[in-house]
Amino acid sequence: MRIKYREMIFWIPDGVYPPAEDSFLLAEAIKDARGDKALDVGTGCGIQAIILSKNCKRVVATDIDSKCKAAVIINSILNNVSPPEFRLGDLYEPLEPDEKFDIIVFNPPYLKEEYKVSIPESRWWSGGKNGRTIVRRFIKGLRNFLSPDGEAYLVINDNPPLEETLKMIREERLNRKVINEVKVAFDKIYVLRLSLDYTQCFP
After folding, report:
1. How far apart are the first and last CA of the chain?
2. Distance CA 128, CA 115 (A)
3. Which domain holds residue 59?
4. I need a labelling partner for 158 at 20 to 30 A (CA). Which of 22, 34, 78, 113 fits?
5. How many CA atoms lie within 13 A of 84 on its CB side?
6. Residue 7 maps to a domain
7. Is the pLDDT of residue 202 over 50?
8. What is the pLDDT of residues 74-98, one digit of tens each?
């Protein structure tokens, strides 16, 4: 399968998440993002990593599925950018403990559904019973890898309500702002921009 986004073309092998409305919403949010080092968590076919490669000096792309590596390399060639550094693993697992990134992006599984082993593709959308199992892990680990002046971009939906997710982010001492949104069927999808909040570092 091949998918077009703006002037770019992406090859999607079997078993790799095909970009959808949430992917394109995030892509629009980060198209002008700049930094020395960027991280695309759960890269899939590499759409976000490749967009980041246009303005960032170094890009790391991670995913739990080894099939994504070939997709990232081929799509980099198709779109005339240097291939990001692919690392296999879950969330921050493939990173060094002291690594810092100026830009971090993540389009996570966020639907209220448990992963079904009988349906391997369900890992693309299964966010656990409350839809925030993986999102919570991402938010809790973000401070360890985001540079002091860095920005993170997170895709999220409105079920559970957005305010619950914003509260979770606030509890981790992170600034948060909705910068993009779209209505899809009976849901609303947002892109949040996060940064470190130093005002809450001291009592």
Report:
1. 53
2. 7
3. 22-200
4. 34
5. 35
6. no
7. no
8. 999 999 999 999 999 999 999 999 9
23 class by beta-carbon count within 10 Å (0-12 exposed, 13-18 middle, 19+ buried):
buried
Would 126 be classed as within a structural domain?
Answer: yes
With CA atoms as reference, report the closest residue to 60 among 100, 26, 20, 23. Answer: 100
Strand pairing category for 187-196 and 101-106: unpaired
CB 157 within 8 A of CB 110: yes
Q: How many helices (DSSP H) and strands (DSSP E) are in the chain?
A: 5, 9
60's CB contacts (< 8 A; 6+ apart) are: 37, 38, 39, 40, 84, 85, 87, 95, 101
- For residue 125, what pLDDT is reported? 54
- Asked whether residue 163 is assigned to any structural domain, the reply reads yes
Q: Can you tell me the distance from the alpha carbon of 179 to that of 193, in angstroms, rounded to the nearest whole number?
A: 7
